[in-house]
Each structure stands twice: as C-alpha cells, then as structure tokens.
Design a protein that fits this description.
Layout lengths: L14 E4 L3 H12 L7 E4 L3 H11 L2 E3 L2 H5 L4 E4 L3 H15 L5 E4 L6 H8 L5 E5 L9 E7 L5 H12 L2 E5 L6 H9 L1 H18 L4 H21 L4 H7 L6 H11 L2 H25 L1
Parallel strand pairs: 1-2, 1-4, 2-3, 4-5, 5-6, 7-8
Antiparallel strand pairs: 6-7
Length: about 280
C-alpha cells in the first residue's frame, strides 16, 4: 500500500530554542512529530550532555551559545530559567536587533515589557505558560501577545505551542499569573491528589501498588470524561452521585473540610507568588 504523504508543516522559517531543558525538549519533540523539518530547528544549550542528547534524539543543530543559534532564526523561543533571562536577553539583543524575529517566552513570572526591554525594545513577543504534561503531548498553555504581534504571528505561535497540547489566548497579561496558578502549577495539585488517594486506600487495607494504580487510572479516566463528554464538570459530578450513596458521603466530607475554599486559597497563593517573582526579577 503506498504511503500517504504528510501535509507540509504550517510553520515556515526557522526556530531557535534558547535553552534545551525539559520544556524546550517537549516542544521540539512535538514540532518534529508534527512534521517540521529538523534542519529548521536550532537549540542553544550550555550543558554538553543535554546538547548531545537533543542532537542524537531529534537530529537538530545544537550550539553552546545562544547568539549562534538565534542569528538566522525567524522565531526565537526563550526557554531558560527566569533568573537568568535578563543576562540571556542582553547577550541576544545585538544579534536580534537587525531581524526582530517573533519571540516566544515560556518563562514563568516575567512580563512581556521586561523581556522586550532586555532585548532592546520593539519586538513582537508572545508570553506563554505551558505545563509539564506538554512532555507527553497533553499540555495546557496560556498565551498573551503584545501589540507588535500581528495575526500571522499569533497564528504562528498558536501552531507551535499547540503541537504539545491545548493552547489558549488570555485577554490581559495580569491573568497570566492566574494561568500559572491554575495550569502551570496545576499538575502538582493532581499529583498530590493521587498521593492522597493512594495513602487513603492503603490506610483502608489496599496494597499500596493497587491503591496507586486505581488512583492514577481514576484521575486519568475522569479527566478524559471531562474533556470528551461535553458536559460541565459539575454536571458530571452529579451524574455519578447517588443520593445517600458512597460518593455523596465522600463529597460531604470534602465539603465539610472546605475543599473548594482550600483550592481557592491555593490558587490565590500561587497567583500572588507569580506577581512577586516578576517584581523580584525586575529589581534583580
């Protein structure tokens, strides 16, 4: 049977990743799986082992220095830790000044204005907040663009970030701290829930391996139902809750323990911390 050719990948031009850590790796893998030619991807990563692994796994060009990777790029993805972003941007500024490529930042807590200033100003810049499930193609990413990004640039960023999961636009940059609190940090909340369910099941007599397997699959199945069913989560919850049944008893215990209020406080705490990080890095 003849093979069916893939449609051309809908991103033209070349992409340079500045930083080759887990999140960059997940996006590179997603782009390659989606059909982007590897010769159009460059990565700058100072760690020799990570650099070699990226070259071996994806057949992309790798560099020690970010300026070498970004010199000819049409799109630059800033994938370094927030604490080093200022120095990285300062070093890139002379190289990017002539071409002014689309810049995508995946650094938590850093405002568009900060990054643009460090780069020298006037850049089309998209700030985004992905999360770790992007590593398996199941990420959730919030995005915001500055006024210098046109419709084509927005479509480009959405295509790139959408290769590793769901990508949605946020109306105001202030809300990015909430995106970080809900989805950026969110996987940790569910890992904690899985831990708690495992511990509770083991306490009631289940073998720990069994409790863990049941907890993981239950969370996975519930998330798939919420994604695929089309009903609101509250309605799905009502459908599995019989009056005076076991689920109702458990939900009553959650209510008495203030679960909703606790989640609200947790998200608020993460949102506040995100804003604090931005101010701290601005002063640094």
């Amino acid at each position: 049977m003849p093979s069916i050719p893939h449609a051309p990948f809908p991103v033209s031009g070349s992409i340079a990743f500045i930083g080759g850590g887990n999140m960059a790796r997940s996006l590179i893998g997603a782009l390659v799986r989606s059909g982007m030619p590897t010769e159009r991807i460059a990565v700058a990563e100072p760690n020799a082992a990570l650099r070699q692994q990226l070259a071996d796994d994806f057949d992309v060009d790798v560099f020690v220095d970010g300026t070498d990777a970004a010199r000819a790029a049409d799109i630059v993805v800033l994938a370094v830790k927030p604490q080093v972003m200022r120095s990285v941007c300062t070093s890139l500024a002379p190289v990017l000044a002539t071409k002014h490529p689309l810049v995508i930042s995946i650094a938590a807590g850093l405002r568009i204005e900060q990054i643009d200033q460090w780069l020298g100003g006037g850049f089309p810049l998209v700030r985004c907040m992905p999360n770790t499930p992007a590593l398996i193609g199941a990420g959730a990413t919030g995005m915001i663009a500055n006024a210098a990004v046109d419709r084509a640039g927005c479509a480009l960023a959405e295509t790139i970030l959408g290769t590793s999961g769901t990508a949605v636009w946020i109306a105001h940059e202030d809300l990015m701290d909430t995106v970080t609190a809900v989805s950026g940090s969110g996987p940790a909340y569910f890992f904690l829930l899985i831990e708690a369910l495992e511990d509770a099941g083991a306490k009631q007599g289940l073998p720990r391996e069994t409790a863990r397997a049941l907890a993981i699959q239950t969370c996975l199945g519930a998330a798939r139902m919420a994604s695929e069913d089309g009903e609101a989560p509250g309605r799905l919850r009502e459908r599995v809750t019989s009056p005076n049944g076991t689920t109702a008893a458990a939900l009553q215990a959650f209510a008495e323990g203030g679960l909703r209020e606790l989640v609200a406080r947790a998200v608020q705490a993460a949102t506040i911390r995100g804003a604090e990080m931005s101010r701290e890095l601005d002063r640094g």
